[in-house]
Amino acid sequence: MRAQANGRPASSGIPEATVARLPVYLRALTALGESGLRTVSSEQLATAAGVNSAKLRKDLSYLGSYGTRGVGYDVEYLRYQIAREIGVNQDWAVVIVGIGNLGQALSNYGGFRSRGFRIVALVDGDASRVGEMHGDLAIAHIDELDRLVVERGCSIGVIATPGDAAQAVADRLVAAGVTSILNFAPAVLTVPEGVDVRKVDLSIELQILAYHEQRKRTPGADREGLPSEQVVES
Amino acid sequence: MRAQANGRPASSGIPEATVARLPVYLRALTALGESGLRTVSSEQLATAAGVNSAKLRKDLSYLGSYGTRGVGYDVEYLRYQIAREIGVNQDWAVVIVGIGNLGQALSNYGGFRSRGFRIVALVDGDASRVGEMHGDLAIAHIDELDRLVVERGCSIGVIATPGDAAQAVADRLVAAGVTSILNFAPAVLTVPEGVDVRKVDLSIELQILAYHEQRKRTPGADREGLPSEQVVES
DNA sequence: TAGATTGTTAATCGATTAACAATC
DNA sequence: TAGATTGTTAATCGATTAACAATC
């Protein structure tokens, strides 16, 4: 029973599935706002976010009662409330570990800065790459990690190393005080309680697509000839 | 009721949550096999994959009965069965659209080729980049997309364009015959029935981490002082 | 007031987990 | 046989959805 009986937000009692959709709503609201829209119905916003309106309203109800019956939601007000709830109004310092192709791409990605994420350090284990400039950041050696995390106040670390280096990097990040990790390395990480890890695994995503693709080609022996289903991932 | 009463696999009746974990088990089995292990218990494999053993056994039961009671699973046999189920034994031709930093990183990513994904075309909308070589592939213009998809048999397309180009690219991919799309662009895609879309959104991942990070810092007013929870994403 | 739309309830669905009978 | 471990059951939990009373 996570939702509260009264109209007040449950602050931390928001279901994970809802938390994962809030950034999607935020993005949709930003786009709608930029197009000049002042008020939006749950139906409109749901369409823009790619969900159904019942789910959207249920999700928003965890934050509070920010809509007006018969009217809809004020775009700017709702956008602000969601941004505050997520914490995007703050500035988050991020360190990237592993400056290969992917690490470089991430360090150049414009979508981070505009959403409150500031990349403040680039770290690599290869000593020959130390000093190499990317934007206005120089690559530092992994041995500097602890100092950099503390000095620059990083609470989020991104791991973009090969799989076999990932656990050691995670250990170092945690020891330095990082409590949130975004892991692109193909490895299962073990971290202490209180540290959040999210995993983005490119070849796993392709493999999931391949699974469904295979079934489109070989109409399943034990299933009636159904039209191949759509599996849109949230 | 997706599991069948008998021991036979339900081929296409595997729950999505299970499908998403099969590649994780596959990777763990490959690593265990390379380390010389011949037989593995559900407990060992579950640990290697970062799940609990009950979930692992339930997941595997959708594929069939590939273990031996009192003994465990034959590593190589189970690895093969999962690979076959996913479709990784086949070769999948992939086209990448949008050769910016991320597209380049993806085109160089070694983890794809070794898992049956062959990148066979790089496409970009910027005419001035056409001909530029990446590995042994030259960038082609987006107008060549249809021809390339047909000639090279692509069934999977990767979108790594800016958000505002993504829907048009998706439309072109679908028109050319692509039925599975991995979307890195920050945009909600609309596709016809029968086309699968999976979305990887880097700033959404960071925002989800930020949400939890914020709560670690401001011990929620309406929650007893609990140790900040771990949210390891599968 | 009449029409529109939210916020919430309750039913349903799917995923997780513990426990254990089956069986190697 | 005794010990180990799978495969399955059933309980529980969390997420989704339709429907509608509340209310602007």
From TrEMBL, chains A, B:
NAD(+) binds at residues 98-103. Keywords: Cytoplasm, DNA-binding, NAD, Repressor, Transcription, Transcription regulation. Residues 24-63 bind DNA. The keyword Repressor applies. It is found in: Cytoplasm. SUPFAM superfamilies: NAD(P)-binding Rossmann-fold domains, Winged helix' DNA-binding domain. One of its GO terms (biological process) is response to redox state. It holds the Pfam family Put_DNA-bind_N. Homodimer. Modulates transcription in response to changes in cellular NADH/NAD(+) redox state. This is Redox-sensing transcriptional repressor Rex. It comes from Mumia zhuanghuii. The gene is rex.
